[in-house]
TrEMBL record:
Keyword 4Fe-4S: no
Domain named Eukaryotic translation initiation factor 3 subunit E N-terminal: residues: 16-146
Pfam families referenced in this protein's UniProt entry, alphabetically: eIF3_N
GO molecular function, one term: translation initiation factor activity
Keywords: Coiled coil, Cytoplasm, Initiation factor, Protein biosynthesis
Annotated organism of origin: Pichia inconspicua
Name assigned to this protein: Eukaryotic translation initiation factor 3 subunit E N-terminal domain-containing protein
SMART domains linked to this entry: eIF3_N
Cellular component terms per the entry's GO annotation: eukaryotic translation initiation factor 3 complex
Domain of life of the source: Eukaryota
Coiled coil feature spans: 182-209
Length: 413
């Protein structure tokens, strides 16, 4: 990413969602979000934020590095680091010893051959080997500790073993969430997708054991943390995965959640619609944008509003320039191929402009979208009657806007 001008940084800060996402994204996943923000905020500010995010974890090595960045003149670390290290070892050593036998049994060929999805059968099997509920719970505690230390591969394995055996639905739900984040942090996208599906099954199950508020919070948590999967570099090798995300986010329960508590997710839905040219969803997303416009707006929502509702095409060039900045600085959108994204935005813009204007030269179109090359196939004379409706609507909108301006001008004279 090339260095931003101060003006571009101001735009990036205006639409930066990092602070908003902190309410919904797992603490460990905040770290890469903050790392990405160094392009728009001073390094010392990011260092302090990273330290504040990680200070209650057991990720001592990372904390020590960040502390030295914040306090370059201090050679020695505060005593609290040594105290924290002892605290970690006091928990780590006993759990490592107490779970060793359990893990050996679970990894043995005899047990592996007979483990099933049926927890009752699994529990009967391991009970014969001396593994009781207390031993199973130790797997959860050890997995939680390893997760807190940043050993995500080990945490994922321990939490997975716990899930196979435990009948405690509350802890199983937490283990699924912990394994999901661990798999994301370790880069195991395939495993993360499996956990995402399992979490969705828990949330959407008619027998969900929590309250409606707890279900809403968990669904919100899932929506936000799933962005790390859908916008991962591996998933984006096949853009159709973004269509899968939109099917989920625009389904009834999830769209209601987004509308009620996280309208900024519209940014990622719109970006994925544009990126995959899934324009059949434009009508639905335009409605959502209009409903949420009083609460949330950014260049992506404004683009949809201009192209489908207000027809203020003279704003397109400046909106697209802001989209370029947001696409470069947003942690998730930065993984998209910007050339593909912009080409699709220009194509959609031109098509919608030509629904209003029956004919337009390349020069005419460039007045709206900026000095970009216009493919010849778009410069086709439109004569069908369907365009008349768009043109009439646009002309009436312009006339109404002019009359409103006159009225306000007279009122304040």
């Amino acid at each position: 990413m090339s260095a931003l001008t101060e003006e571009q940084k101001d735009v990036a800060k205006k639409y930066d969602l990092t602070g908003t996402l902190t309410q919904f994204v797992d603490r460990h996943l905040l770290y890469p979000l903050l790392e990405n923000s160094v392009c728009i905020y001073p390094a010392n500010v990011i260092d302090q934020l990273e330290f504040d995010v990680l200070k209650d974890t057991y990720m001592l090595k990372s904390l020590q590095e960040i502390y030295h960045n914040i306090h370059p003149d201090e050679k020695d670390l505060p005593q609290e680091f040594a105290t924290r290290e002892k605290e970690i070892m006091d928990k780590l050593v006993p759990l490592n010893e107490s779970t060793k036998k359990t893990l050996e049994i679970l990894c043995s060929p005899e047990v592996q051959q007979h483990l099933k999805q049926d927890k009752i059968s699994n529990r009967e099997l391991i009970k014969a080997h001396g593994i009781d509920d207390a031993k199973i719970l130790e797997l959860y505690e050890f997995g939680k500790l390893q997760y807190n230390r940043g050993d995500y591969v080990m945490a994922s394995d321990l939490l997975n073993n716990f899930k196979l055996l435990s009948t405690d639905q509350t802890l199983v739900q937490k283990a699924v969430c912990g394994k999901l984040v661990s798999d994301i942090m370790s880069g195991d996208v395939d495993e993360a997708k499996e956990e995402l599906n399992k979490l969705r099954e828990i949330i959407d199950n008619k027998t969900f054991t929590g309250t409606s508020i707890e279900q809403l919070k968990l669904r919100n948590w899932m929506i936000h943390n799933s962005l790390f999967i859908y916008f991962s570099e591996k998933e984006l090798t096949d853009p159709s995965h973004l269509s899968t995300m939109n099917e989920l986010f625009m389904s009834s329960s999830y769209s209601s959640t987004i509308e009620a508590s996280s309208p900024w997710i519209l940014r990622y839905i719109i970006a994925s619609i544009l990126y995959t040219k899934d324009f059949r969803r434009l009508k639905d997303i335009a409605k959502a944008v209009e409903i949420e416009s009083y609460e949330y707006q950014d260049p992506f929502t404004t683009l949809i509003n201009v192209l489908t509702t207000s027809f203020e095409f003279h704003r397109l060039a400046s909106i697209i320039e802001e989209i370029k900045i947001v696409a470069e600085t947003d942690f998730f959108l930065n993984h998209l191929n910007k050339d593909i994204l912009l080409a699709n935005i220009y194509e959609l813009s031109i098509k919608n402009i030509l629904k209003v204007y029956k004919t337009a030269t390349a020069k005419d179109l460039q007045k709206f979208i900026g000095n970009v090359e216009i493919p010849d196939e778009f410069l086709v004379v439109k004569n069908d009657k369907s365009d008349d409706l768009y043109f009439q609507t646009y002309e009436k909108t312009k006339a109404l806007s002019f009359k409103s301006s006159q009225f306000l001008s007279n009122a304040f004279d």
